[in-house]
Amino acid sequence: MRILLRCLLLSCLTAGFGFAQVPEDPGPHPVGWTDVSFSHPLSGNPTVDARLYYPAMSSGNGATPDASAGPYPLVGFLHGYFAFVDYYDDVCSHLASYGFFVASVATESGFFMSVTNEAKDAHAMLTWTEAQALPGGPYEGMILQGSDWSTIGHSNGCVASFHVAAAEPRIARMVLFEPNWLNPPGVSSFTGPVMVVGATLDIVAPASINASNYYNALQSSSRCSYVLIEGSGHNGSLDFPFEITTLPHSKAQSLHRRLAAGFLRAEVKGELFHYEDMVGAAAELEPLDPEVRATEPVLWSAANGSQLGIGLAGRGDDVSVLFAFSAAPGSLATPFGQLGIDLSSSHLIARPMTADGSVDLTLPYDPSLAGLGIFTQGLRLAANGTGALSQVLAITL
Fold first, then answer.
1. 307-317 pLDDT, tens per residue?
2. CA distance 379 to 350
3. The overall pTM is greater than 0.85
């Protein structure tokens, strides 16, 4: 058995894996949307305006909500300076097509913007929107009740996201598109996963002194990724070209969909294999420059013809990564977490960690081993001997 495992001739047929589809492709749900206006005691303005995007029976304004696959996780979108709610229809609709209920705040979009008021309005919006899905409400059964929330911000909306998180402990994770660094509260203490997206041609909020500041400050984040989009600018997530860049706007927008949808599908829905699209080998095929700091590591694998790609996201200051392949599952408590494979039938591969925090391997595939089931798990090791185990992947050869 050990000889067979050393061959590692694998075809990854794991249930739930969907490597043929990248996260920027449309999701399975038609998307409805509607504009709402309401008053709320948490808001910074007397009236809060917002746009809601949700899985629906058909696509379009006012379409009937489809709760058949619900309830859905709630996501708040916070716009940038002098940016209107409809500027972000593409990315918000895209997320809804994958089974998220997205509420996008529309207030504070004028010339005189208050970041703190946007944060208060976003907090009120998330609270009010969740209540609309209670029994008897217009979105009954559409939103997970009492669950945690995610936010996506653009530019100043990233600053506002941290103001929301300072007031609302249910904010569990964030995506930051081309963030503006205004030293918001709680960045260094935020423990949830974060995706920071910068652009190499951002002249409004240059990544070197804005997006990188967030990444460097987010030391408590369990999984923090920093992805630079090469040739893109400050407005790559918007629905129309708004600047001169070397990367076509349609491509920049597609990559923003990839990073937002991939991150939320990974962190909210447990589809961790999408980290390969964001920081692994698949990301390197795109104009993306990724770096990751995952104290809680992530393992992924993808078959391609006669080869298997397997990778792990850890920390750039780790010294090494171990990949273990076993013929049987196991259960053993270790100082690194729960070992989920059987060491008596295992084979180990060790590699040094890279400075960008991820390691990818390509292993040969031999059709003669078809039908053999194995299990794999990864381990990131720090210089001081500490580390952490990844999740376990079950693979059928």
1. 777 899 999 99
2. 9
3. yes
Residue with tokens 């104009």: 287
Cβ contact 198:210 at 8 Å: yes
Question: Would you give the distance in Å from CA 88 to the centre of its chain?
Answer: 17
Q: Do residues 57 and 183 both lie within one domain?
A: yes
Torsion-angle region of 102 (φ positive above 0: left; ψ -120 to 50: alpha; else: beta): beta
What's the mean pLDDT in 226-249?
A: 95
Above 90 in pLDDT, residue 325? Answer: no
Q: Are residues 346 and 254 in the same domain?
A: no
Based on the fold, state whether residues 155 and 207 are members of the same structural domain: yes
Same domain, residue pair 247 and 336 = no
Q: What is the DSSP string of 144-174?
A: -SS--EEEEEETHHHHHHHHHHHH-TTEEEE
Question: Which CATH number does the domain housing residue 324 bear?
Answer: 2.60.40.10
Out of 5-9, 94-98, 113-117, 371-375, which region has the weakest mean confidence (pLDDT)? 5-9
Q: Both 108 and 230 in a single domain? A: yes
Work out the pLDDT band at 241, boundaries 50, 70, 90: confident
Q: How many CB atoms lie within 10 A of CB 155?
A: 25
